[in-house]
Design brief:
Shape: globular
Number of helices: 12
Helix content: over 70%
Largest sheet: 2 strands, antiparallel
Amino acid sequence: MGMQSCLKDALPFAVMVMVECAEIGMVTMSKAAMNNGMSNFVFVVYYNALGTLILLPYYIFHSCRSSRPPLTFSLLCRFFVLGLLGICLVQMFAFMGISYSSPTLAAALGNLIPAFTFLLAIIFRMEKFDLQRSSSQAKALGTIVAISGAFMITFYKGPPILLGTSSSNSHHPLVSSQQSNWVLGGLFIAITCVASSTWNIFQAATVKEYPEETTIVFFYCCFGTIQCAIVSLIVERNPSAWMLQPGIEMTATLFSAIFGCVFRSSVLTWCLHQKGPLFVAVFKPMGMVIAMIMGVMFLGDTLHLGSLIGAFIIAVGFYIVIWGQAKEKDMVMDKICRPESSTQNTPLLQDSVVEDNRINL
């Protein structure tokens, strides 16, 4: 039982790390495809449409095998709003921002998502926050620490520790003089952060009310693809832009459909159901660490002191948040167990009171 409990607790952590790795790979490949001339609007439509087609047979198979609760008009409206937030707003604005700036800027500003999600979760009472409780203090402190570590990686380089094989020490700088639309890209990414935090809260509320992750993910992707297609057909009227070229464009579309649409959407929905919105959002700063490790291993980037310190700070922030959630879970279990002990003690207490009254009489 102990081993199963440990594996159950470790699984959400492991799959969220895989999600962040997939996101870094998807963002990097999408930027390469856009540099090759691919429209960001066309890219979002194609990879979500392909992902929906991949999900369709699994959704049909799952619906035939299991007896799921009936779909109501209210639920379909929720799925429509999820598609609008998660795909039409988050993904379209994110890739617009990346096309105008860089993946590094997107990863840096993405660290605002945990803060926005934490505030929204408190407002909508999805996270309990009481400054007098150590669990609430830990969750707030851990979120701030993790964000601070990610910004340290972004803004403080420090002396080199491990020299890479690349010819340039500043691979993908955060602010480049050649990126004249950096401010516009940053604005689009900031809008993405707010919409992504809102999606985390709304998706967690939806999966709590309707705990069928497969159905939610399929309709979310389906509605989001239709919405993106309508917007993209209005914005991107050049027929040649809709021609998918072999090479990096096709590879980025296929990779994003499998890992960005199917895998990421399914895992996020499951983790939101199991752990809540704060647990999912707090993994965003880890994207900076993953990008740093992948850059050192595969791109020959140089490891600097600031990156090492920032990675350590992020790890400390993660530990504090997870400790706070574990502490809160223990408090809930204590509250569940207390009524049983009190009901067992109540008859004895009542008997002693009756005996005392008899003696007094």
